[in-house]
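Hey, resending since the last one bounced:
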Amino acid sequence: MLHQEFEHIYHSLEMMEDKTNGSKSKEYSTGEDRLANFKEICDFVGEDITLTPSMLAFLFMMKHIQSLKNAMVKNDMDRNNWCFRTSPESGSHEGHKQRLVDIRVYCALLDACVEEQLKNRPQGLGEQQGLGEQQGLGEELQVLDNE
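The structure tokens again:
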């Protein structure tokens, strides 16, 4: 594959990711807190099972990864189901490319959950600082700009 072809695919996924992030944000949260659904599910599960929002975001992401893996194992990859949303042939299910985009969005949600968890964690004796305390988002972006 030529670099130009790869760049086209990469930027197409970025555009779909932005669209998905905007359209599905209402599914992730009903209020101001973008991570509210993860927190509410953890509260619903209760104290019997230790489940954090970051663990839940990871599990949701893995559901999409497993679906893609199953499609590849079954050799279920063709133009009818390698689509962004749905195609007439695929019925009402999301296409495999949509799942790929969802995984990218869940990566961002997982990062947000971990950052919030680190921000709210009290600094214990001998505990190493988490990434959230070592380097803020502004510093991360500056590092990326300098590369």
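The chain is about 65% helix and 0% strand.

Sorry for the duplicate.
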